[in-house]
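Reply to dn_fold:

You asked what the input looked like. This is it:
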Amino acid sequence: MSSSASQFSNRIPILMYHQIAKAPPKGAPYRSLYVAPDDFSKQMDLLRRLGYQGLSMGDLLPYLKGEKRGRVFGITFDDGYLNNLENALPVLEDNGFTSTCYVVSGLLGQTNVWDREVGVEQVSLMNQSQLSQWIAGGQEIGGHTRHHRRLRTLNDEDVQSEILGCLIDLETALGIPIRHFCYPYGEFDDSHVFAAREAGYYTATTTHPGRCHVGTDLLRLPRITVARRTTRLGLWLRMAFGFRVNH
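and this is what came back:
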């Protein structure tokens, strides 16, 4: 295999989901970030049948480092919605996949209050017991700050509280190491990358579109957004070839 073909085949996609639930009525804010449970199930089933293995960020890390090779992809869920536990976990278990759910540690068992001002429907976030159920189901927890604040609006002290404090909160509550992070709103700069590294996170994901490869900065990892209208064909084309399609 040529070096260019080898590089092409070694691209690793990381999928970004939010809510796995029926979408709110047409016109609702952020409606695109809902994926219907049946659609999610069909997506995971197709990828398994195509020979892909869905992995949490912890399980994906050796592939990102070049220590392992395989037909793998990352599965991530932002915010820690209860509907991830209710609707995604059974599908993940059925397919033998692992995933990472990024949790807002200061809002366990509450709702997505950071979206309230823009009129987004308030839905339940997992509480400590439900997060334990997620972990017992073979899945992983990552950090998503304490309060889902925009990091660029904060001073250094508050940034540290949000990033490091989230790790401390979750490790204390769950009794496990927390080693993976996601920047809220996908907004970050070099100081936030530094703060994530100093806190002890091994990886951090963004909302920048694209696939990863060996050598991609582990604290600036791009992802592929899976939206309400993403078709199975469109998802596969983005994963396999990096095509940007309106599916």
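Residues 1-8 have pLDDT under 50 and may be disordered.
Hope that clears it up.
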